[in-house]
Every structure is written in structure tokens, then in C-alpha cells.
Design brief:
The complex is a heterodimer of chains A (339) and B (315). Chain A has helices at residues 2-29, 45-54, 61-70, 105-140, 145-158, 162-179, 199-233, 236-243, 248-285, 291-299, 304-332; strands spanning 76-78, 83-84. Chain A is mostly helical and 339 residues long. The radius of gyration of chain B is 23 Å and the shape is globular. Chain B starts with a helix and ends in an 8-residue tail after the last helix. The chains are: A mainly alpha (339), B mainly alpha (315).
Chain lengths: 339, 315
């Protein structure tokens, strides 16, 4: 098993290098970070040249990539003084300094990460619980009223883009609830500055974004869980379990559900890291100070170190979750063995 | 399909379909699928709306702005209201719809071409070609698509000037969006094609074609591609819906199709600031996106069941 994990991790390295090359080439060509500096008082031409040199943007792209990857503290950057560089490179955890804030890119991202994780983990918990409930009930009571309503509901929500769902929810629960004199939900930020960063404030501000993300995913997940459960429920061993006189609850939750959970785990495991990317839209609309909004804000200023950092973090998460998903399989289904 | 039906006749609602030709049977099965029929009807209505609408409004109407009449509620002068700079929503909905649908169709064309080339090359030739192309596919699948689209939209934006095609001018960003949507959505198709080719490659008729001295190109075009048609049609149909959605996402975030060219996606850009006062800014384009995407998904589902020979029981 350990051997298998080690092998998988080693296989992931060339994949991640390929990903970083694709992203790096796109990034470098996507705009000149020096050109967007300074706002109304753009730096003088010679200052710009100096900045470009200081940030290593005057180097050929291959050199820039190598510096980004392994740093430049081992090579002489200034021939006259014989000075070496200060970058340590991504493999030693240095993503470079943000062009905008001049802080280490990793620090800029990590500051925002908890906010995104708070939103996404809460949403994922809601999604898993509700879609399991809806999916299992729909499967057990196939073609019942509940099943029909769930089917209709998921057909519609499945086609709604996240931003539209956000607008609809904002319009109903913030704009109209306010008009009708009902307690209305906040539509932006994490907390009221006057109230401070309290638990109630954050929870209150999380309701709309979490509902937005959840509603869309529940549609797809619950349909999937329904069809997997249906397949299992109609199999021979479930009939055997019933024939043995097991209670319906035990049949469903121990015998049926455990076998149905395999494809569900795949779905969740492979989707989870992409939730982080989906945060871009939700966080932008709800002005949530997370990683997604950081990405949009810094995209406009071509802040490569931060953008690369976010993209690489999510890509690593995708690869890691693929491995985790495969490992959970062996626990759920002992017939699967990796060597 | 024919072999299975000779053993066990395919029966639909008591009617035998054994005597129908393959394509007639597919069409028959498709129209038996209730959801698919609903989808087709909605889709036809949308096509009528964006095509016949041009009889009532010219493209100039869709871009004509009266800044004195901003954010007007739906009424006599503006049937569906006016937007943030005083353009009428209805004609923009018509012309924007044409662009949105055009982007959906053409970007899928790009992704089908790329996906087919990659999939066929890696399945047919195998070896080093296969492992290189599949690593690339895997890498592309591991990068979150929305973020990649945003980066690429920024990379290409402004590089292509406004184009005149068929007497209409398209913002260069339309072409950019088509290309980047195509270049980020071919991976699933490439995998479908690869596995189809892998199984077809081993069949006796391909062996026979080899023995007769057919070239690689002829075997691929005449023997391999026609047999992969069914999954490609389904994937391409669903791809149109996903492309229309993706365009809406990136236009909503402000890096997609640039004004004055309208799309349903960029009509939504900026509507959040006026959520209190002007719900018509997002309700109409939003509803069009949802209806279009839903109808295409319905049709795609119907096609999948109709084209899959094992789906007789499900119809």
C-alpha cells in the first residue's frame, strides 16, 4: 500500500510540472504587470525598466520558469558585484512576491484561504447531507410525489448558472424581504464593520453564498445518488438481505448504501477541489474576501506570482484528491487492492 | 443493433421497430422520449425568437443608447426595460442570443475537431504518441477550467480586431471566446474517441482493410470515425450547453465578449449593482440562458437514449 502511494505521488510530479508549464506560458503572455502599475501616476520609463529587471521580467521565458520553479539563489544575477538571487523557487515553498502588495505571494493567498475554506466546507457539508437525503428518498420511493418534485427541481437548478442563482436569491431574500419588512439577509462581505467579526455575523453573512453553491450542486449530486441507489436496491444481495428478515433500515443503510457509496465518493472526491475554483463567481458576487475574489482582483493587474500560486494550489489539490479517492475505495470495497 | 434485435426483437410500447431502418428507429426513439420532445420544442421557440426577432428590430436598435433613459422599467417604449446606459433590453436579447448560440455551436466545433484529432491519434497510433497526448489531456483536466478560461481570455483579449463577417461586425473578443472555449473543452471528447478507437482498431474489418492495403488515413476516415459518431453527437450536444454557460460566466466576470456586441452573458454584467431597482436587467437574459441550456440538456439526454442500442427498455 505504501509502495502504491509513493508510486502515485512520484507519477504526479511530471503531471504537475506539465500543468505549471502550460499555466506559466499563458501567464507570461497575458499582460504586462508593470504597465498597470501606479494608476494615475504611472512610473517613468526608466523606473519601469528597473522594475522589470528587478522582477526578472526581462529574462527569456525559460529562465523565468526555472527561477520560478527552483529559485535563483544559486546563480549570479549581477555580474559586476557577483551577487546571487534571493528567490527560493516553488519547490522550496517560495512563490515569489506579489507585484501588487510586494508581500510573499504565498502569504497573500494563505491570508484569504481560511475564508474560502469556511465557505466551501460548509457548502460541501450541506450538499452531501441534503443530496444524500434527497437521493436516497427518491430512490426508495421511486415515482412518488417526493421523487417527482425532486426530479423537476433538479432539472431546473441543474441548468441555472451560479451567478444567476445568486442574483435570484439576493433579489428574493435581500431585496424583497426588506421591502416586505421581513428580516432580510446581507448580500455582501463577511460581517458588518460596526458589529465586528463575530460568529453570528459571519454565519448570518454565509447563508446566501452557501445556499447558492449548495442548490446548484445538490441537483446533480442527488440525481446521481438516486440512480446509484436504484441500481443497488434492485440487485440480488439486497433481495437476499430482505429475505433473511433484516430490517428495512439495516438493509438500506448497511447493505445498500455502503455499496452505493463507491461512485458517490468518486463524484465528491473529484469535484471537491473544483469547488475552490467555483468560488471565483460566488465570492465575486457576494464580495466574500476569499481566494476566488483575490484571483479576480489580481487577474486584472497581471499579478503572476499570486495567480500562479492559486492555480497551482488547486491543481495540486485535484491530484491529491484523486489519490485520496482511490485510497478510500480500498476501505469501502475490500475487493479493490492496489499493489 | 440488428444482431441483438434478431435474437430478441426490440419492442417499443408494443410496437415492433425491427423493420425500421437504423436512422428511422433512432428518430422514432427520440420522439418517444418525452423530455427530449419538450427540449426540442423549447429549442425551436428560442431559435424562432432570435431569428424572427430581427424582423422587428435591426442590429442598430440593439446598440442604440439613450443615456437619458437609463434603467427604465418595462413599458411602452422599452418592452423589456432599458439597461444601465439606456439601451433597450429586447433587441439586445435577440441579437445577444444569436451571438451566444453562435459561440456555443462554433466553440463545440473547435472542441470536436481538437478532441477527435487528439483522441484518434492517441488511440490509433498508441505508444509514445498516446502517452504524451494522454498526459496533456490529464494536465488540462487537472487545471480548473473557469480559472483557465479567465487567464486565457485575458491573454488573448484585445489581440484580435473587430471583424466584419456577412455584413455584421463582431467584436474580436467573440473569436477569442470561441477559440478558448474550444481549447479548454476537448478533453472528455478526446477520451471518448480514444477508447472508441482502441476497441474499433481490434475489429476484423479494420484488419481486413489493412490486409487490402488501405492507408492509415483511409482506415481512420472510412472505418474508424463513422463508428464513433454516436458518442460524439451526444457529447457535442451537451457541449453546446456547457459552452453557452461558460461564455456567460466569463462575460459576467467582465473578461468575456466585450461591448458593444451583446451576449446573454455580458448583458448580466453590472446587473448586480442594480439588484434593488432594476431586476429586468438580469431576469430576461438569465431566463434565456436557463431555457436554452435546459432545452439542450434535454435534447442531449434524448439523443443519448435514442442512439444507445441498449436503451430500448428505458424509452
Amino acid at each position: 500500500m505504501t509502495k502504491y502511494i509513493v508510486r502515485r505521488l512520484i507519477q504526479a510530479i511530471p503531471l504537475l510540472i506539465l500543468i505549471s508549464v502550460i499555466l506559466f506560458v499563458l501567464m507570461q503572455a497575458s499582460g504586462d504587470p508593470v504597465a498597470t502599475l501606479g494608476g494615475r501616476q504611472p512610473p517613468r520609463a526608466e523606473d519601469r525598466e528597473r522594475l522589470r529587471r528587478a522582477w526578472g521580467l526581462d529574462q527569456p521565458i525559460l529562465t523565468q520558469y526555472i527561477i520560478w520553479l527552483v529559485g535563483n539563489d544559486w546563480m549570479v544575477v549581477d555580474a559586476e558585484t557577483g551577487e546571487t538571487g534571493t528567490r527560493q523557487g516553488v519547490i522550496r515553498g517560495d512563490f515569489g512576491n506579489s507585484f501588487v502588495t510586494r508581500q510573499p505571494a504565498l502569504q497573500v493567498i494563505v491570508e484569504r484561504l481560511p475564508n474560502t475554506l469556511l465557505l466551501m466546507i460548509t457548502a460541501e457539508v450541506v450538499i452531501v447531507i441534503l443530496s444524500l437525503a434527497i437521493g436516497i428518498v427518491s430512490a426508495v420511493k421511486q415515482y412518488s410525489l417526493i421523487d417527482t418534485i425532486a426530479t423537476g427541481f433538479s432539472f431546473i437548478t441543474y441548468s441555472i448558472p451560479v451567478f444567476l442563482m445568486a442574483l435570484i436569491l439576493m433579489y428574493v431574500f435581500a431585496v424583497n424581504f426588506r421591502k416586505w419588512g421581513l428580516p432580510y439577509l446581507p448580500i455582501s462581505g463577511m460581517y458588518e464593520p460596526a458589529e465586528g467579526r463575530t460568529f453570528q455575523q459571519i454565519a448570518w453573512h454565509m447563508i446566501l453564498p452557501v445556499t447558492t453553491i449548495s442548490l446548484i450542486s445538490i441537483a446533480g449530486y442527488s440525481r446521481y445518488i438516486r440512480s446509484t441507489m436504484l441500481e443497488v436496491i434492485n440487485s440480488d444481495y439486497i433481495r437476499t438481505a430482505r429475505a433473511k428478515g433484516l430490517s428495512e433500515r439495516r438493509t438500506l443503510f448497511v447493505h445498500a448504501f455502503k455499496n452505493a457509496s463507491l461512485p458517490i465518493v468518486t463524484l465528491i472526491g473529484l469535484d471537491l477541489p473544483f469547488l475552490l475554483a467555483g468560488a471565483v463567481v460566488t465570492e465575486t458576487i457576494f464580495a466574500w474576501p476569499g481566494m476566488g475574489r483575490l484571483f479576480i482582483d489580481h487577474l486584472g493587474r497581471s499579478d503572476f506570482p499570486v495567480l500562479m500560486g492559486i492555480l497551482m494550489m488547486i491543481s495540486v489539490a485535484v491530484v491529491v484528491f484523486q489519490l485520496l479517492t482511490d485510497l478510500v475505495y480500498t476501505w469501502l470495497d475490500p475487493r479493490i487492492r492496489y499493489t | 443493433m440488428t444482431t441483438s434485435s434478431s435474437a430478441k426483437p426490440a419492442v417499443l410500447n408494443g410496437e415492433s421497430t425491427v423493420n425500421l431502418s437504423r436512422s428511422r428507429r433512432t428518430i422514432y426513439r427520440f420522439f418517444r422520449h418525452r423530455v427530449a420532445v419538450i427540449g426540442t420544442v423549447i429549442m425551436l421557440l428560442i431559435i424562432l425568437f432570435v431569428s424572427l426577432g430581427t424582423l422587428f428590430y435591426s442590429e442598430a436598435d440593439s446598440n442604440w443608447a439613450d443615456s437619458g433613459l437609463r434603467l427604465q422599467a418595462p413599458g411602452e417604449q422599452f418592452p423589456l426595460g432599458s439597461d444601465t446606459i439606456g439601451r433597450s433590453i429586447l433587441p439586445r436579447l435577440i441579437y445577444g442570443g444569436q451571438i451566444s448560440i453562435l459561440i456555443g455551436l462554433t466553440s463545440v466545433l473547435v472542441s470536436v475537431v481538437v478532441g477527435t484529432v487528439v483522441g484518434v491519434a492517441s488511440g490509433y497510433f498508441g505508444g509514445i504518441v498516446d502517452s504524451l497526448l494522454m498526459r496533456l489531456t490529464e494536465a488540462m483536466l487537472s487545471i480548473p477550467r473557469l480559472l483557465l478560461l479567465l487567464v486565457m481570455a485575458k491573454y488573448f483579449s484585445g489581440k484580435i480586431p473587430t471583424q466584419e463577417i456577412l455584413g455584421r461586425s463582431f467584436s474580436g473578443s467573440v473569436i477569442v471566446i470561441v477559440v478558448i472555449l474550444g481549447l479548454t473543452s476537448w478533453m472528455a471528447l478526446a477520451r471518448i474517441m480514444r477508447s472508441a478507437v482502441l476497441s474499433i482498431r481490434e475489429t476484423e474489418y479494420v484488419l481486413a482493410a489493412h490486409a487490402l492495403g488501405a492507408t492509415h488515413r483511409r482506415i481512420i476516415i472510412a472505418h474508424v470515425l463513422p463508428n464513433t459518431l454516436a458518442p460524439v453527437i451526444v457529447a457535442a450536444t451537451l457541449g453546446v450547453a456547457s459552452a453557452i454557460l461558460s461564455e456567460a460566466y466569463i462575460s459576467f466576470l467582465g473578461v468575456g465578449v466585450q461591448p458593444p456586441t451583446a451576449t446573454w452573458g455580458n448583458m448580466l454584467d453590472g446587473s448586480r449593482q442594480f439588484i434593488d431597482d432594476a431586476p429586468w436587467l438580469w431576469i430576461f437574459p438569465g431566463a434565456m440562458i436557463v431555457l436554452t441550456v435546459m432545452s439542450i440538456n434535454f435534447v442531449g439526454d434524448g439523443l443519448r437514449d435514442a442512439l444507445d442500442p441498449r436503451s430500448d427498455k428505458k424509452v
